[in-house]
Amino acid sequence: MCHFFFFKALALALVALDAFIAVQASLYIIQPSQGSICSGGSPCTVQWLDDGTNPLNSQIGVTTCGLYTGDMQLVQTIEPVDVTGVQSFTFTPIPDAGPDSNDYYIAFTSTSLEINGTKYTSYSPFFSLNNMTGSFSSPLASATSSIAIPSSLTGVDASSATSVLSTITVGTITTPLSPTSTPSATASSSRFSTLTSSSASATTTSTTSRVTSTSSSTSSSSASGATSSNGAASLRTASLPLFGIVSFAALLFL
Predict the structure, then answer these.
(1) Which of 3, 116, 210, 234 lies 20 to 30 Å (CA to CA) from residue 184?
(2) What residue range is the signal peptide (predicted)?
(3) Coil, strand or helix at 91
(4) Rounded to whole angstroms, how far apart are CA atoms 248 and 238?
(5) Are 80 and 147 spatial neighbours (Cβ–Cβ below 8 Å)?
């Protein structure tokens, strides 16, 4: 009798674990990597993969992109991209948009995929920018203005689709002890997945804590990463679909 309940509990645990892991999967960003360096005024490459876990790149689809620091503080908007059709792009950091720092990361926010009512967002690892001459405390308006989503990506009139990226009022920023998982989490891990709200005024909780930023409007947001290696998101865990199926079958049998 004891063995019966033990195996039944084990089967339920594995099924639940598999379901949880499936939700945490995400866009797998491999470049910029943890500790890599780009320069203001020079092309910087961003690259990602589809690792076959949910959500697939085809489900994420068209995304708005941006260069961020701290707790989703927008530094520079980047051209929207459909992660289904391509796996990389280059952008040129605007020198006046921010200072030399190793606390930058790229965020992709899906325009269509939502999880628990929140737009799906994925983060790159933290990386460095040099040859920068700006300041985080004085965002450059021309660098953070919205970019229209091309009709070639949406299939609709570009004037009706605009990339709106989240940003926050600069207040007191507590930087991470070291970049790790989540665009402001730990330093020696790879962080690659996260569910985060694109609205700066909402409080969003994810699997990994990101840097806390206190603003005059007391906005806070927590990002967890389908990103992973750097301070950008939590270490991606491999899914266990086979164990889940076998365990579920065992449960039915018992």
Answers:
(1) 116
(2) 1-25
(3) strand
(4) 19
(5) yes
